[in-house]
Amino acid sequence: MRAVTWQGTRHVSVEDVPDPTIQQPSDAIIRITSTAICGSDLHLYEVLGPFMTQGDVIGHEPMGIVEAVGAGVSHVRPGDRVVVPFTISCGDCAMCSHGLQSQCETTQVTEYGSGAALLGYSKLYGQVPGGQAEYLRVPHADYGLIKVGTELPDENYLFLSDILPTAWQAVEYADAPTKGTLAVVGLGPVGQLAARIARHRGVEVLGIDPVPERRTMAARHGIEVFDLAEDTVGEIRERTEGRGPDAVVDAVGMEADGSPFAGLAQTVAGKLPDAIARPLMENAGVDRLAALHSVIDLVRRGGTISLSGVYGGAASPMPLLTMFDKQIQLRMGQCNVRSWTDDLLPLVEDPADPLGVGDLVTHRLPLEEAAVGYDLFQKKHDGCIKVVLDPTIAPAPSV
Known about the structure:
31% of the residues lie in helices and 18% in strands. By secondary structure, the protein is an alpha/beta fold. It folds into 2 domains: 2-162 and 336-390, Medium-chain alcohol dehydrogenases, catalytic domain (Quinone Oxidoreductase, Chain A, domain 1, Alpha-Beta Complex), CATH 3.90.180; 165-332, Rossmann fold, CATH 3.40.50. Strands 3, 4, 5, 6, 7, 14 and 15 form a 7-stranded mixed beta sheet that branches. The longest helix has 13 residues, at 337-349.
C-alpha cells in the first residue's frame, strides 16, 4: 500500500509499505477514505526527529471503512464506516474507567514514561504505524472505533478522531462561566473549533492569532478577533474591565513564534545524532514559551488556563511566582477522545452545523501530495488552515 512516511526533519514522502494485517483478536483493518494533517504532526516534521525512525508511517486523524476484524471484535464489522481516535485505549483498565483514555494502563509506553500509545506518533508513544495511508491496523478496535452514518460527508465526522474532542476538552478544562469571557490564543484548527464550541455554549470568545486568514475564518463564526501585537494584552484587558478574560485556551504549543533561544535549541537538537539528542530532549529540552507566558499574563487573577497545544520540554522555565500570585488554575493533557464522543456526535450530525465543521478544511489533496500539504500547513501558505489527504483521489498527472 501507499503511505506517508517520515524521512527526516521537514521531509516526508509517500512510499510503498507492507499492507497491515490482523495481529491480535482485538484488531481491525480500515480502508482509509480521509486522513488529516494535524498540528501535532508538525512537531514530528520539525522538532521530534530524534524519536523517529526513517520510514515511520505517520498520521493520526483518519476515518474510513472496516475491511476486516479480529475474532475478538464484535462492535464493528466489515463494511461499517468508522472514525479512528488517535489515542489507543482498551476501555477496561482503571484509567479508561475514569474517563482518562489517554492514560490507558494497557497501552502506556512505559519505556518512555508516557501515557497511552498513539497512532503514528514516534517512539515516545509506541511507534504504532499511522493513518496517513491507504490502510490502517487499529488495535483495541472494539472499544476505540467510532461507528458513524453513511449519509454525511467525511468532513462532518473526520475531526472526531482528534481535533474536535481536543477542542471540546480544552473548553471543558477552561471552565469559563456562561456569559463569561474566554480567550483562545492560536486560531489553527484546534483553536478555531475551541472558539466555536465556547461560543456555542454561550461564552464570549476573543480569538488571537497573527495570521489574517485564521482571524477571518474565526470572525465568520462570531468570534471577536485580535492580531498578535505588542498591545494585544492591554487591549483585551481594557475589553474585560481591566481584569483579563476568565479563562484562556493556549492552542499554540511548543513551537510558538517569538521564542528565539528555544527555537534555536530545538533546531540544534534536531540536527544532533539521535543517541545524543534523545537524552538531551528528555532531560533538558525546552519549549518555545512565548505564547504560554503571554497567556499567563493575560488571564485574570483566579482564572483558568487550559493547554491544548502540545508541550514537550523537560526543562521549560515557568514564571511560578506570577502564577502563584495570580492564583492561576492550570489544566492540560492529551485528549481523552472517547470521553467526549457522545457529546459531539449529535452536533456534527446536526444539519445546522453548530460547530462549523463544514468550514475548516482549506485544502483537500491526494495522498500522493502529502509533502505539498505538509509544506503548505507548516508555512501557512495559500491561506492554509486544515489539510485533508484523500487516498481515493488520483494525483494530477505530471507534465
